[in-house]
């Protein structure tokens, strides 16, 4: 079976940071060919500025479309989009415009609310209860997932990188997150 995993990084959270690095390795071990969407040139100080966030998302979407333009998604039997932060909104937008949208599955790390403006279908979401990008404890992410029947795993006290102030806790949390990611990717 021909499989593809496309990695959609965040603005400052690149594909070599833990969540994306390990999820990519899990996908590769499961037989997925991987592609990392390279985008950049974002404005500074985006957090809290809706206009800058919208512009950054538009720019990232355009860059992702250009990168994926020569990739024949129809030739893959299993398609997985793995996104982090703004990358989750970009992945959802790219999938929504794809003829293969019904076959795309999503691993969603610390999504922005904009991610849910498009259907996600088969997905798993990871968020932190202390993520300031989505309102921390008042985040609507769990509610948005529940409305769509999407599993949402909340890491208590974790920020936008799914990290806390304690490295040992972060290591244990990362292990749990990757176990759940692997189960979703492999279907086990």
Descriptive notes:
The protein has a six-stranded parallel sheet, sandwiched between helices. It contains five helices and six strands; from the N terminus they run E-H-E-H-E-H-E-E-H-E-H. The protein has a single domain (3-186), classed as 3-Layer(aba) Sandwich (Rossmann fold), CATH 3.40.50. Helix 1 runs parallel beside helix 5 (167-186) and helix 2 (50-68) packs across helix 3. The two termini are 17 Å apart. It has helices at 18-29, 50-68, 86-96, 141-148, 167-186, and strands at 3-8, 32-36, 78-84, 104-109, 123-128, 152-155. The chain is α/β, with parallel strands linked by helices and 188 residues long.
Jot down its keywords:
188 residues; six-stranded parallel β-sheet; 37% helix; alpha/beta; 6 strands
Structure in a nutshell:
37% of the residues lie in helices and 18% in strands.
Could you list the spans in which at least 5 consecutive residues all have pLDDT below 50?
none
Q: Please give the CATH class.
A: Alpha Beta
And the CATH topology? Rossmann fold
Count, helices: 5
Rg, please? 15 Å
Question: Main sheet, how many strands, which sense, barrel?
Answer: 6 strands, parallel
Corresponding CATH superfamily: Alpha/Beta hydrolase fold, catalytic domain
Describe the SSE topology.
Elements: E1 3-8, H1 18-29, E2 32-36, H2 50-68, E3 78-84, H3 86-96, E4 104-109, E5 123-128, H4 141-148, E6 152-155, H5 167-186
Parallel strand pairs: 1-2, 1-3, 3-4, 4-5, 5-6
